[in-house]
Specification:
It contains six helices and 14 strands. It has about 280 residues and is α+β, with helices and mostly antiparallel strands.
Length: about 280
């Protein structure tokens, strides 16, 4: 039997070779699960070619084809803090709508640049969390009621300083401890490349496993660092993670998007089986 550390290392090296990290044994459907969740730092719509092109970002989001996607750096950071995307086009072309938040300005999209888009579902609760640290950073804590079950998304953008990231991880844990229990995903640009005990994300354990789902996403033209993450609690919530590495994604931002496949019904302890008549039924 392979040790957990070797399995994690093997997964990271597989991702470097352009392969998908599949968390074996978690989902009988081959790791595809019942929903696709994504995270994408859009770098204020400025690509590696230094060109500002919001339309190109929308095209990448359409390529990803996620049910839920968290965006970072979707607003200007200074001045009017205006939103940078055409939300009507996102709705028309990608069938995604933005979770409503109280933005910094009437022209802004999100909270500290964080935007959460979803295809369908009911937004039960939204908490805009201000994260500690030297830089102004934030997270969206959103409770969703989906057709497949209840889900909490924490969409965050952590700081550049290690000490700040450690504080921000602890703030996330505190927010979770004060909320009702439900399956939870922590997603976003967490700006941490270290693994193991040296990582600023180590304090997230055992709630989240910060190593199991790490895949390199930065820089976009030759991804080496797993700055963008999707982590699940319980741990069997995420069944697989992959980098969305296409010619357009490699130039549209300095980060590549990452996609995660989740098995929400499995995490809730619900087994879907086929009856004799071919009708799906749920068993606890």
């Amino acid at each position: 039997m392979k040790s957990p550390q070797k399995s994690i290392s093997g997964g990271i090296f597989a991702a470097l070779r352009g392969k998908r990290v599949s968390l074996a044994g978690r989902d009988p459907s081959g790791g595809r699960g019942d929903a696709v969740i994504a995270s994408y730092n859009i770098h204020k719509c400025v690509g590696v070619d230094k060109r500002f092109d919001p339309g190109r970002i929308t095209e990448v989001i359409a390529e990803i084809d996620a049910d839920i996607i968290a965006l970072q750096e979707a607003d200007q950071r200074f001045g009017e803090r205006a939103g940078l995307l055409d939300m009507e086009r996102l709705h028309r072309d990608c069938h995604l709508i933005s979770v409503p938040v109280s933005a910094f300005s009437p022209k802004g999209h999100g909270w500290h640049g964080n935007v959460l888009l979803l295809r369908e579902g009911v937004v039960a609760k939204v908490h805009q969390l201000k994260l500690p640290g030297v830089e102004p950073r934030g997270a969206l804590v959103v409770d969703l009621d989906l057709k497949i079950g209840p889900l909490r998304i924490i969409a965050a953008h952590f700081g550049l300083l290690r000490h700040s990231r450690a504080q921000q991880a602890n703030a996330i844990l505190k927010a979770i401890s004060e909320a009702e229990e439900r399956p939870t995903l922590l997603i976003g640009d967490l700006n941490e490349w270290r693994m193991g005990r040296r990582s600023a994300l180590a304090s997230l354990s055992p709630k989240f496993d910060h190593m199991a789902t790490a895949v390199p996403s930065f820089p976009s033209r030759f991804p080496l660092f797993a700055l963008d993450r999707v982590m699940g609690s319980p741990h069997n919530l995420v069944t697989g993670v992959e980098v969305h590495n296409t010619p357009l994604a490699r130039v549209a931002s300095d980060h590549l998007p990452i996609k995660a496949f989740i098995d929400l019904q499995g995490a809730l302890g619900i087994n879907t089986v086929k009856t004799v008549d071919g009708v799906s039924a749920e068993q606890p």
